[in-house]
Structure formats: structure tokens, C-alpha cells
Amino acid sequence: MAAKEKYPEPTYLEYGFGELEHDVIKKELCCYCGNCIAFCPKIEREGNRPELVDYDPLCGLCYAYCPRTMLDMPRMTEKIFGRVRREDEPLGIYRKAASARAGGAGVGVQDGGVATALLIQALDSGVIDCAVVTDRDDQWRGVPKVATTAEEIAASAGTKYTITPSITGVQMAMDQGKKKIGFVGTPCQIQALRKVQLLEEPYAFGQEKIALLVGLFCMENFEYELLFPELVQKTFGLEPGAVDKFEIQKGMFRVLSGDQVREVPIDQTDEYVWKGCGPCFDFAAELADVSVGSVGSKAGWSTVLTRTDAGAKVYEKALTAGAIEEAAVSAKGLALAGRLAKGKEERFTAKTAELLGRGVPVNIRR
């Protein structure tokens, strides 16, 4: 039975990729989350942008589910949490805040390794049957991967720091017949998947199979074609294959290669930032089931915010199983994370005002 025979016609019927390209992609609002590529077989990844590769039926799916065509954060928050965020909640709504670290999550994890440990716990306990993670190739390009074992999850640990359309991995998982999909990603990617789950449009392609969303704290992300040639190769003199790890510590952007550490102040990396990061206010992945980041905790530990039933249950199971250990997060640490979150909001406000001044409206409701 056709969708329009079962449901009222979609709000965005007769919108297509042309509108998406005009309103989002060409105006540098695209966060390159991968939503449109993942769920429309007529859109593919070409370079660092979505491209239409077949006839456009103007079904409206790509436009409806893009987090940058329209995002009603208060409405989405109320649907998930039963209320809207208060002004004194810069990190969003959460049930519990803690510092945690993983026990033996494997070499290569970022900070406390908690995101990796939570996904492994969710897999082992049957909450998910796979985890969509972001791996990398030998040149440090991000690659979405469907991990089905603890070893595969651990092997993909570590922040990649370059824009990757990781949501395409969700469609890969569905194509493999997975029915309980876990996903770890940045705030914009979490927003995109929540929009897929919550928007009242009659598109049915397996949204109910998304079982767990683990969000990562994120201030901004970088464009591979700028970061690697300019900073990694030209400034630091390193080939991509020689990079072991990236990290941001104490205001410095650091590249680790063997026993070498190269670093620059984070404000000197602004020219490499993905332009679509500007119109983003979300630092702590406020729509995730559980959010994880290094800010607010001591070295080697992660700050964890459990938000939903699903997130709280996985976290508590991991604690009980000894997969992670917990310590109190300090008021000072949470305040620091909150200041960064407010700083990102201020940048969002300034950027959207600048875009509006250039005739580019941003249809995002904070």
C-alpha cells in the first residue's frame, strides 16, 4: 500500500534535492551528517557533499529529515524528555552527571574510553545487535563502519576530528538485516537521527531499528581537505599515515605521532573548521540517550550525562558489570563544560545573525 493511501500526504511533498541544495548545501549550512545519503537511494556521497545521482521524485524525504532545513529543538526535547530545557541547563536535560573511565577497553580509546565501553556493554547485553561507529582508513579519512563484535567496536575507538557522513552506516546496518542499531556520533548527527525518529511524516524505512544513541561532546569539526594538507602536512611535517591520534587538551590542538607531539593553540585551527559547524548550538549532544566527553573530568576520565531510560540502563549495567568505574564529577568541571556550551550557543547566535545579514535564513529553533 502506498504511503499516501495510509497516511496524509507529507508536509514536504514536492520538495526535492533541488530545494535541499539551494537552501542548505550551497549556503554552507550542511553539517554533512549523512542523513539524506543514508535514507535516499538517489543521493550519494560525492567528495564532501551529497549529490543527486538519479531522477528526483520530489518525495520530500531528504528535505524533511535534514537537520538544517528545520530543527525545532524545544518540541523535540519535549517529546523525548517530557519538558523543554531550562535556561540554567546549558548541557541540556540529564538525569545523572558523573566522571567515568573504562577498564581495559583497549588501546587507542579517546580519554576515558567510556563511549566504547558503553557500546560494548550494550552489544553484550543484547540492547543492540550492532554499533555504527566511525573508523578511518590509512590516510585518516573517516569511514562509517557497522561493528558487530566488541573487538570491532574497540578497534574503531578514538575521535577522528574530520567531518564524516557517519549516518550512512545506519543504512548499511539495516541493509545487513540489523534490528537494534546503536550509533555513536556528534551532536548534529544525533539531531539528525532524532529528527528521523520524531518528525511526524509518513516515511517508514526502519526508524524503529535505531535502539541507542551515544552522543559526543563537540565544539566543532574539521574539513579533511584543509586540516591535513595545511596543518598536518605543511605545518607539522607529518604524512597522514604517520598520525596516531588527535586530541584537544588545555586549549591546544595536538597531533601525536610515535613519541612526537605537535600542537598549536586551538584558535589557530579556525580556518580548517567545516563551515557548516557555524550554525550549531549543541555542545553536549543534548538529544542523545547518553552523552560523553572529556571536558569537566580529569585526564583519562570522561564526563558522562545519562539522559533517557535507554542511556541510564546501559550506563548502570556497565557499572554493575565492572566495564566502567565511576567517580563524582566536580561542580567546577560541570561549570567548565557549561561555559563551553554557552560559548557555542553564543557563536551560533552570532553566526546565524551574520548569515541572515547575507540573506541566508537559518530555520533552527533553540
Key phrases:
366 residues; alpha/beta; Nuclear Transport Factor 2, Chain: A; 8-stranded mixed beta sheet; 3-stranded antiparallel beta sheet
What is the first-to-last residue Cα distance?
37 Å
Name the overall outline: globular
For the biggest sheet, the summary is: 8 strands, mixed
Strand content: 15-25%
> What is the number of beta strands?
15
Radius of gyration: 20 Å
Q: What order do the helices and strands follow?
A: HHHEEHEHEHEEHHEHEHEEEEEHEHE
Structure description:
By secondary structure, the protein is of the alpha/beta class. It has 2 domains: 3-223 and 273-365, no CATH class; 225-271, Nuclear Transport Factor 2, Chain: A (Roll), CATH 3.10.450. It has 12 helices and 15 strands. It has helices at residues 3-6, 17-25, 35-39, 61-65, 73-81, 114-124, 150-155, 168-175, 187-198, 224-235, 309-321, 331-357; strands spanning 43-46, 49-52, 71-72, 96-102, 130-136, 142-147, 181-185, 210-216, 245-249, 252-257, 260-265, 290-293, 302-306, 324-327, 364-365. An 8-stranded mixed sheet has the order 6-5-7-8-12-13-4-14, with helices on both faces. Strands 9-10-11 form a 3-stranded antiparallel sheet, with no helix packed on it. Strands 1-2 form a two-stranded antiparallel sheet. The longest helix is centred in the C-terminal third of the chain and has 27 residues, at 331-357. It is globular. Residues 1-5 have low confidence and may be disordered.
